[in-house]
Specification:
Shape: globular
Number of strands: 0
Distance between the termini: 24 Å
Strand content: under 5%
Order of helices and strands: HHHH
Structural class: mainly alpha
Largest sheet: none
Length: 87
């Protein structure tokens, strides 16, 4: 799962705009399920992993645009987590 999350973080940092960033995030959920990264099938665990890994990657985010993208992505994953756990 770590490799998968790192790949998604790279895609987030390379996203040209907020719309593309949100697309990376939403498609990552589907890709995660398709690739069966999480054998237990628990989406919330993947989302929490992404929040933690994105938070730790903030320290290395260069240039400032990457830091902004990482911060936006953290907020998007937090929203997804709230939506998912509210079900």
């Amino acid at each position: 799962m770590v490799e998968f999350c790192q790949k998604i973080i790279s895609e987030i940092k390379e996203a040209p705009d907020d719309e593309a960033l949100r697309q990376v995030i939403s498609s990552s959920i589907v890709r995660h399920q398709t690739e069966k990264i999480n054998t237990a099938g628990i989406k919330s665990r993947y989302i929490l992993n992404m929040i933690m890994m994105l938070s730790s990657s903030k320290e290395e985010a260069q240039p400032i645009q990457s830091l902004v993208k990482v911060s936006v992505a953290i907020e998007e994953f937090r929203k997804l987590y709230k939506e998912y756990t509210a079900l």
